[in-house]
Amino acid sequence: RLIYLNGNYVTENDAKVSVFDRGLLFSDAVYEVISVIGGCLIDMERHEQRLMRSLGELSINADEGWSAICLGLVSRNALDEGLVYLQISRGAVPERDYRWPSADIKSTVFAFTQERALIDNPMAERGMRIVTRPDMRWGRCDIKTTQLLYASLMKMEARDAGADDAWMTRDAMVTEGTSQNAHIITKDGVLISHQLDHRVLPGVTRIELFERAGAQGLSIQERAFSVAEAYDAAEAFVSSSTLLIMPVVSIDGHMIGDGKPGGITEQLRRSYISEVQ
Ligand code: PDD
What we know:
Its cofactor is pyridoxal 5'-phosphate. InterPro entries: Aminotrans_IV (IPR001544), Aminotransferase-like (IPR036038), BCAT-like_C (IPR043132), BCAT-like_N (IPR043131), Class-IV_PLP-Dep_Aminotrnsfr (IPR050571). The protein is α+β, with helices and mostly antiparallel strands. It has two domains: about 1-115, Aminotransferase class 4, branched-chain amino acid transferase, N-terminal domain (D-amino Acid Aminotransferase, Chain A, domain 1, 2-Layer Sandwich), CATH 3.30.470; about 125-275, Alpha-Beta Barrel (D-amino Acid Aminotransferase, Chain A, domain 2). It has eight helices and 16 strands. Strand 15 and strand 16 form a beta hairpin. Bound molecules: N-(5'-phosphopyridoxyl)-D-alanine. N-(5'-phosphopyridoxyl)-D-alanine (PDD) binds near residues 179, 181, 205 and 242. N-(5'-phosphopyridoxyl)-D-alanine binds next to helix 6 and strand 14.
């Protein structure tokens, strides 16, 4: 497996970065996870747009041919299905210092691939079990930074609680999953999803989801929903580049619907898959 690092495709052993890289010392880095299906990058343009926005919000100076980098890696690694992880950090600095030097630092860019079955995921048949946890992340969740420790901790807590993942809440309102956007469908057939603000990541899959949902005649409300509304929902699901559209069958032990993946959710997943295949 080759790794892309600062302009070259190198072996894993040769992919080395400085211990003074601000990505390591301060999580001063942003990233994208792009799904690959049938050797094609899914929604690369939207990932690039979000990446440029994340970089801009942090004043990291980098603008490269992101899609060419990812495509080069997919073809060199002959990846059919899985993902590309692309990370850009502010770069290495001479001394550890919270403030970065005003002179331009050379950003560190790397990418790797991971093989994974995205379409034939057994979880799509059984559905996900979710637990809710307080959202104690920083206030700029709209920037896709590598500050993922809280999400990791919550995924571990979810696993220890016998669940598949966690949805995070602020003031009893659901913001999003640890690494997915969270959605419910009410008993009146309305799709509810947190509005785009600093509390959630603007998911690439979420955009495509809304298009599919619109085409299916669902009405969409972009607003925060409460944990109580989620317990009471007809269906619940998540969206992300790696899970695509994935049904949720229980939240904090409350069965959603009849405890099986919801019919509308399954239709949305099928429709999304046929679009990207
Ligand atoms: N996570 N919300 C959070 C906090 C995320 O980390 C992600 C993606 C999403 C969904 O975004 P998208 O549809 O663009 O993948 C929402 C990726 C997959 C990850 O960290 O592995």
